[in-house]
């Protein structure tokens, strides 16, 4: 179905040369008998039979094909289209046809249209019938974070703005914003012969742009522009033949950083503020580079108030964005097109020509510049102060929330306006031969093999580590003599460890619930505690838990009381430094040199101390050895802290700022440069537990430029960051 749809046959009379208003006037005159139908036909050039039929109320329907949907149904469709557009999901012509088809299927009216789908002409006539309520517009895409702004954010903003605007004239209210002028004039419609598949225009363009800071007051005054080039040096020709009082600068990125912004503030804003009396108000976005301590102090000296716009809302709350930059960019594309035509050899904008182009741009918009600036302050509700101008643009505002459409559709539109990102998965590199492709099934097989290999290596390393730890512990206990007291039986000092083994999932199992004090039996030391056959009903000790078991020797039962406690079992740590239970060496005793296994021979055996042994001394000694690293820790101490990574451990040197309790503290960390440490520009302060402290360092030596050196330790053994 193509372009024109005229029903008029060549040579026939025109179908209708009068309007509905003329017909109503003629019928009214005939009904009041002021003129006859013949006279009305001659005066209004309307067929006499048409007037007579209207007087007699014949043929009340409109001529031609009748409407397929009723007026009420079309009104409901209009409400749906309006709500969808308000929530940021406007409907195209094709989507409108699909919506109508879905509605007809649900109401058993699929016979109204051929193939149960409204045609293109139905959509055209529908929009024509309701042109006072609906229109087609080119859309502007905005990010979801901008669409997620709600009424509460703007109500808080306008409440603070009301206080800031108190007794400030329009000439003292300023809005600033940074924009860029691109090197691409964009596309436009040109004339080609029919059926040209690729219409092209020869013109050099690039993705480059030049940043410019604009500032304007609420009374329509435009302050001097401030241009920033992307370069390391500034040249004379880049600053000549430009607008009056315009300023130029450069930066490595081509955008405004904190240094450039401060220079703009000192060279443009401060002279503007010094000429005015009374309080001044500056409105801008909340970029971190747009504010620092020096700017705040200068604002306080000159009675300047800073107000920041709500985040992700400058497209509706920034005066320059709303009404000034649009006409500016359209005029810039015209000027840039003429520049490209007259300078075809230039691959991009010559910076030496840019000041001249900028001057032409400001002169071209000067006529409407003041009106556009004032319109921007009005459209954003600043001058005159009117929050409703912005609040009514937000769908969840109470005045715009009276939608009479289905609640399920309304909930869907609200959910579609907010962000709902997909889950981000961890990416891994595939070692594929160059030039070779791979399928998704091969990727899954590769990941499965890699996981199984990593699991086997982890289990093997953990088992070896645990075996070595227990063997070291056994050696220390076997070689340890016991001091006998008078009239006491000699008993070997052995710490009983329950059966321990490792599951395929790298979790340690220990049966400590049935440990009861019994006589100690000698067992074969050659028995491997890692090959126990008992596998049922054993509790799992999670890797991050630290398990300590104490026994009350007075009641001969496991206890948690503070008296007569003794450390029985401690899980080897895999993340922090390994802590071994040590005892002080005493006099050698040949009777106590026998070796005993660390494995229980029964489920209810436990170690009973000798009468000559002091449990309190042994407990105090072991606990003291466990926290030996942290007993001299104090505020302002320098420490080496371990951070466990997925593959390797990293170490950082820091200074203790505050000790919270017995287990943690706040540490301010430094950075390493060839074993010389310095403080970063931004303080790196973190809460650290004492178990992560590897070494307490001594007093450092101060080097050049404030760096610190620690000569008492060799950092080459650690992966110090």
From TrEMBL:
InterPro entries: CenT-Element_Derived, DDE_SF_endonuclease_dom, RNaseH_sf. Residues 578-604 are annotated as: Disordered. One of its GO terms (molecular function) is DNA binding. This is Uncharacterized protein LOC114248348. Residues 210-357 form the DDE-1 domain. GO terms for cellular component: nucleus. It comes from Bombyx mandarina (Wild silk moth).
